[in-house]
Amino acid sequence: MCSRLAVISWFTCSWRRGRSLLAMVLTGGLGLGGWALKDHPQLASWARLLSVVGDQKAELDWNLDSLAKVTGLAESAEVSRRPGRYQVAIEEVRLDPGAFRSGRTVDLQARVLKRDRQGRETTLWDSTVYGENLVVVGQDDLVASWAHRPFELSWAPGERVWVEVWDRRGNFLDRLRYRMAAPEPGKFPLPTGTHSLMPEGKWSARSDSDLNRVVAASRWIGELDRATLAPPAVAERPVRMRRTAEADTLAERPIVIR
Prior knowledge:
Layout: H1 2-26, H2 41-80, E1 84-94, E2 105-115, E3 121-126, E4 134-136, E5 143-155, E6 160-167, E7 177-180, E8 193-200, H3 204-207, E9 213-222, H4 226-229, H5 245-252
Antiparallel strand pairs: 1-5, 1-9, 2-3, 2-4, 2-6, 6-7, 7-8, 8-9
């Protein structure tokens, strides 16, 4: 009799435990029904482990993202000082309208010039071949763009490259011209970004403004040949011998062979 009661009691407890476990699984594991097992040592250990792994993964992703950004900046800085062939586009030229008479029609033009290490100056690109860029002061923004007109140039340290902007409709008495500010020495002069334009000539005080700028987009596309990177040759001057009275006397003396 006692043994039967013990067996019935064991089955009853087992059924209750199984029913509770089944209810916990059906209601979301450790969600709605899991509060009853939240203090179980094994489950608590697993929860802590998963939490640590999640935190470490988040920290690793953040570190990798930061490393990628820093590496990208380092590569950009390295390329900006790297001699080679570059592709450049003048994405925008903007001038302060305060330097122009209201109602005046302005034809914004730009060109890119280069001075090599021998002092020779050449024009690399000129916007005038693509037509007019007419704007009316007081009605339009003084903006022009040649983003779809890229060009290539070769650059090595010691060479200068700059942008000039002017109003092609300006007359002799009222002609404004701007030049890009000098870049950092040893750095590619037209990197991607915004560059200030400084006015030239007698109108410089009136036309100086922070609104005057040129925006360039550039990328490195290849190496230079060794001949371009070689230092400029220095022409040797012929050595001229100065004649002296003593040299003339020695030249006139007969040669005696003993």
